[in-house]
Amino acid sequence: MRRGRHRVRLGQASLTGSRHPQGADAARAATGAVSGHNRSVDTRLGDLLSRALVLDLEVGADGALHKIGALRGGAEFRRPGRFDERTALAELERFAGDAPFVLGHNLLGHDLPVLRARAPGLGLLARPVIDTLFLSPLAFPENPYHRLVKDYKLVSTSVSDPVADCRLAAQVFREQWAELDRRARSGREDDQDRLALYRFCFFGATDLELAPTGGQGIARVFAELGAPLLTVPEVLAVLDRLWTGRVCRTVARAQALRYLGEARLRPPLAYAIAWLQVAGARSVLPPWVRHQFPAVVELLHDLRDVPCGMPDCAWCGETHDPLAQLRRQFGLDAFRPVPSAPGGGSLQAAVVAHGMGDRSLLAILPTGGGKSLCFQLPALTRYLRRGQLTLVISPLQALMKDQVDNLARRTGTAAAAALYGSLTGPERGDVLERVRLGEVAILYVSPEQLRNRSLRRVLEAREIGAWVFDEAHCLSKWGHDFRPDYIYAARFIRELAEVQGVPVPPVACFTATAKPDVIAEILGHFNNELGLTLKRFEGGVERDNLSFEIRLARPQEKEAQLQGLLKEHLGGPGVRDGAGDAAAIVYAAKRKGTEELADCLARQGWAVAAFHAGLPAPEKRRIQDAFVAGQLQVICATNAFGMGVDKEDVRLVVHAEIPGSLENYLQEAGRAGRDQAPAACVLLYCEQDIEDQFRLAARSALTRADIAEILRGLRRARRDGEDCVVLTAGELLRDADLRIGFDAAENDADTRVRTAIAWLERAGLVERNENRTRVFDGRPAVPDLDTARRRIDGLDISAERRARWLAVLEALLECDPDEGLSTDDLAMLPVFRAAEGRPNERAAIWDRGATAGQRVLRTLHDMAEARLLQRGPQLSAFVRYKVRSPSAKILAQVCGVEQAMLEVLREEAPDADDGGWYPLSLRRLNQHLRDDKVDSNPELLRTLLASLARDGQGLAASRGSLELRQVERDHYRMRLHRDWAKLAETALRRQAVAEVVLATLIAKIPDGEPPNGERLVGFGTDELTAALAKRQGQVGHLTDPLAAVERGLLFLHEHGAISLQSGVAVFRQAMTIRIPPEAKGRYYTKGHFAPLAQHYAERIFQIHVMEAYARLGLERITRAIELVIAYFALDHRSFANKYFADRREMLERATTAESFRRIVDALDNPEQIAIVAAEPEANRLVLAGPGSGKTRVIVHRCAYLLRVRRVDPRSILILCYNRSAALELRRRLAALVDADARGVTIQTYHGFAMRLTGTSFAERAQQGQGGDDGFAGLIEAALDLLEGRADWPGIEADGLRERLLAGYRHILVDEYQDIDAQQYRLVAAIAGRTLAEDADAARLTLLAVGDDDQNIYAFRGASIEFIRRFEADYQARTHHLIENYRSSAHICAAAHALIAHNRERMKTGQRIGVDRRRRADPPGGRWSDLDPHGRGRVEVLEVADPGRQAAAFVERLRRLKSLGGSAWADFAVLAFRRRALQPIRAACEAAGVTVAWRDDLPPLSRVREIARFLDRLADLGHGEIAVAELRCWLPAAESPWRAILVDLIDDWREEAGDAPSAASRCLEFCYESLGELRNDRRLGDGVLFSTLHGAKGLEFPHVLIADDRLPARAQTDAEEWRRLYYVGMTRARETLALGCLPGGSGPRSEAIAGDWLLRTSVAIEPPPEEVLRRRYQLLTPADIDLGYAGRKAPDDPIHARLAAVVTGDRLKVVARDGALLLRDEQGAAIARLSRKATDEWRARLERIEAVRVVAMMRRRRDDGEGDFRTACRSPQWEYPLVELVWRSDDGDRSED
């Protein structure tokens, strides 16, 4: 026997474990059941065995003898362990004595050559050999894998025991003898003739494996059985008779003579003779035969595969005739006439004929053109001729089962199967076993399955007839669906052929859409990789029965248009009864879209369902069956998933959203009219859908940096003993040093890693081999965590280990029954991640492992040892519970039909158990049953017969109850392997097992559970085997309960009583990657990346083509059809020249031409365009003058990165100076690129620092720690993290920055000139300015926009030095923006004249002027005509004093408003200090001019209206709420605070969209926004009064700047002073007036003199003295006794009075008992001023004119500490925040 020293024990690697009786005694016990029918057989056999030497050796890999075992008569010879070889062999020789034969398994191929090499003089080497391996294919040709033989090895139940294996070999021989003797005594001439042929072929075959007597022993067996020794003429005569109609008669005689003429060719002839008797179904030529005797394959090929073309050859005339096989296999009389072949006739027939000739091909056939039949029919014919397997590589995993089922329905064959990732363990094992045994003719596999070791081993045992690539465009980077896994397939094919020692099989490629470049690449790929030349068959893409239409539809119009289309093509809505009714498919891009469309149509009465990959398996099947049966009129499907819908009479296909390519569109539209009747295909076109496709295409793209980084990660990874890297994608992504441009937590991260490795393999930098998969099957052995804690408490383990075990148990307890977990999933738990940085050698023994996955598996093993986990296979199943057709009823019906079927079969063929073949007509059997009132159907009968063919495992002997061979579609031949009684008994046992299994599953459903057609139940196989043990009286004795459970589950699953699913298991599917020595030191270069870049460029091109098709179709559909034809007929360059000749550059952009125009061309400014469309890699500084489009440049640059470059929005960070700027940027970006803006981070410095530090104002507010205040220290805390000073557990300080900024690649900074030292450091830390030189990958690209002329916040720490150092800091390129789009030419000139006096400017030599489009306009703009006095010039108003300045300003405001018709909000009055604004405001109010002012506001989250809004949000917790519902919460009364809430909601909509979002997320947004609005909010609605500093970032049509007499100390820095005044001047768009007081601080007229300036000396009376003395003071919370109302009981009337006060109410200040009280209009005291405020205002009490309520504020007891809390009797109360209007005295006035 050929085996090494170590052998795999049974039961460890499969769900069912050993399927065979255990031990030699059990093997002997089985003999009687097989061969006890004839005593004379036992006599001859016993005599032969008693005299023979039965031999077995155990040989090591080095060829040394490790063990010897032998039997002779009743004696044993055993030499285990260490022994002297020469002595042992001499003793073996003596033990053999005069034995006439040597008997064993694989003696000729293994044991005897070893003995001959080590002891050539042994006498036993000269004796005849009976080798059971060589006999097996002759005795059991239909299944040469005897139950005790697998491949060429004995299935041993003992580890390294040659004596036990001798007994097994003897048992195998007994069963072979019994079967051969049965044939010898059968009385059938064919059986007896074959035995005589076998004797002839082995008689004299002396060169079997160099054994001089190799064939003599085998020939002697047939002689002992009574077979005569024929002469050559007799042999020829027998062959003529046996082969008639089974082989080509033209070559049969010649081939027979050739093989008979040479002794070495006679054994191959014997094996060919044996196999031919069972050829056609469930038969396979063992791989060792093909390897040992390649002449067998050659002979069978010549006899059955090569058509002779002679009319009198029945075999060739039938088997090689495509039409004859079409009738036989599919029951069709003709191939499809269209598309036609170039020379006429059916193209489908031509493709089939080429494929049946075992030649390679590439066929392009339109969807619905019968593509599948073109490879299925040749595959079935190959299987019929030679038992060969055809593999179909398909990317559509979710549809494979449908394809298998459809083939079974159309042909009646069960010889197709599918292997893909979501199969359960039993299903996968069943498929692989059927493939191994030769029961499968066509195997559908997903490309990633080729990496599976178990599949490779099974395929090595089969003869591969052909490889089929469905959707072959996936092979081409020019294709619309390129998949790198397809590329690996060619390597797999080549390596498999090399292992098998055969030529590469033919390859057949099929696709519905392939343009010339795709065709060329596919042909070149197989020529280069496999040396194959594929013949092309092109059927075009046109379908004459389909009409196409494109309709323009905005998103809000699509539902209405869809309704109209359905009514037009299907009639009215309503449930249909029959399959003949028309139907429609509606495609959407996403699952959510299908569900929304289905809901909409259902509301209109349509019988409709959504159909996508996220549905449970039973629901998918129900929907598909209902649609095919006509019970559903419409299905709304995702693009890829809808491809599996196979319904002939679909009359309408609607694309609600445009697909990403013409290829996809035509394939999906091709679902219509498959019955060749007219059908319509309609595309609802919207430009935004094109942008969605660009976004989807970019989302999965990899960059060259990503792939290079993954290569670096692989090179850093630990190697195993074979110098291979073995790890999962998740383990690679957890490398802390890995810097990739996508989020490792994304759903497709695993796919991206595997794709990157595929490209590295293509570049020769790595070699990826088979996956190494480890699975831990088990479930929690505890019902809950409390029980687990109690059990763990009794164990002596560390706290860390305890926490880990509990976390794992929690994850397993929460896992859905049908979902598994990967080791990557568990490794993401914090308890594992905390240990990631710990060196393995320093870890505790229980935590060691080379990878995180290995540590997870070790933890699971330890938990099982501690009885916290129960080992055993875990599964789940959907059970039909308490519904119309429950699972139990289905099982009972199926069992009833099976029993009736067996009775009919036994009645019609009572003698069928004689071992012969009997005909079976499925249709006649079905009719017989129906006549007997049995509710049967052909599909059910076919499935039941297949179940009988699989019966045996765990129920009886290993063989199925019967063997079934298909002759034609509904005609079979049947042979029983058991008599009728045994067969019925086995079927009843299987039914009983299924009943127990189902009852156990149903018992697991809790009592009171409502009816459910898809109740998911999780279970372990140990539970089912335990249930069988308890019901042994019902099920009888089971030889292998686990195998019986598997058989019962599959029986229930096959018949729809349950839908078997995967179960809870933890698996580690690791890639095996080798780094070739020659790749050392090589990098992933731009040249390596070029093919992938080309593929991405092609995807962009395909989307542009799809848009062109839609736009042409809107004009005239014939033009669109012409484009389609050209697309598939012309090469890429020719097509682009024809349809995009004047727009070639657009094809490289991942956006539409209209979108590019809006983003780039619409700027109409060369410098802005240069900045926006610049390469994204370099750092840039934009020095921008006022009004020059700074915000516009940032918005458009971001849009360019998003839309044109398709940068991941999550990789972009925009930092703004204040919240208003951030919100404005977000609004403008959303308006420009819509949903593409989602994910871009737009924050203020404090807002981003909050994210970095994990600070939550909302949480602080809920905990009573304040809400929107507390910015102090945030940025410094963020810097501690980014600069490596913080200590986060488990994360190295050096790696913390990368963790925090993971994914960011681009920073855009607005108003860079205003940053302070902290903000400067923050930007530098984010950008990576101070990183080491070799850390380029960690640096971010920086674009900063600023204006050094507007640096005005030195008093806050801002420094102009920071922007001046930018170029050197970041090696940046500088751009200038000097065209002003805001102000008139006069205003620009005046402002420039002022700032030009500054000498330390960065824009020296750059003159600020109006943009080019306005240069021809009057310099004063429209005011050149509107104002005859000033004509739009900057007017200096020279006044004598502040009073007259106030009067002059009021007069100017009125005059401008009357001339220009503007609203008061269009005006702003600015000044250096607030006090200079007071008299002007008073004069305005006295004159009836409404005003607004900017002021520091209290914590806005405490304002009554806002606080109530936040309370409602907080009450929702983590629930969801939509924007529309938020609007319903707005207070009814208008107020500034309601306006803030309106803006907040609008801003939230920009952030999150209209769909419901988590209330907690919205709450956090509100608190952050409110915190930053405190210093950025105006009160009132009118002319704005603000300081010059406060006006930064604002603009107004009209600006007036008041003069002021500043102290000398305030004017020490003249340049800073000019910058401040410059900012004020440049706020004006249309008019600008400058106040000028004697001795004032404003600029002198001569400093800004020019044509743009008008000096006016204003003679005007000042306002009345009482007006000028009026002042305004907004009190702060520090001015109020905040606990006044809180010290009163909750039921005190003060709280009701406070609740009645609203914003705008008037109060009174009164003195009482030394305090100042605020009283309401009824005179009741509601608040009191603080002591400080009382001291300040007591003397002014009589001069207070009004007290206005600005806001009602909330206060809580928890806001204070100590005595404050003790004194408060109410937990929460309100207090008023007020503005005092008062008159100053002379002393006050003198301060002005």
Automatic annotation (TrEMBL):
Enzymatic class: isomerase
GO biological process: DNA recombination; DNA repair
Annotated Low complexity bias: 24-33
Domain UvrD-like helicase ATP-binding: 1163-1384
Keywords: ATP-binding, DNA-binding, Helicase, Hydrolase, Isomerase, Nucleotide-binding
GO cellular component entries: bacterial nucleoid; cytoplasm; replisome
SMART domains, A to Z: DEXDc (SM00487), HELICc (SM00490)
Catalysed reactions, as listed in the record: Couples ATP hydrolysis with the unwinding of duplex DNA by translocating in the 3'-5' direction
Residues at which ATP binds: A1184, G1185, P1186, G1187, S1188, G1189, K1190, T1191
Domain Helicase C-terminal intervals: 561-733
CDD domains on file: DEXQc_UvrD
Positions of region (Disordered): 1-35
Family the entry assigns: Belongs to the helicase family. RecQ subfamily.
Protein name: DNA 3'-5' helicase
Gene source species: Thioflavicoccus mobilis 8321
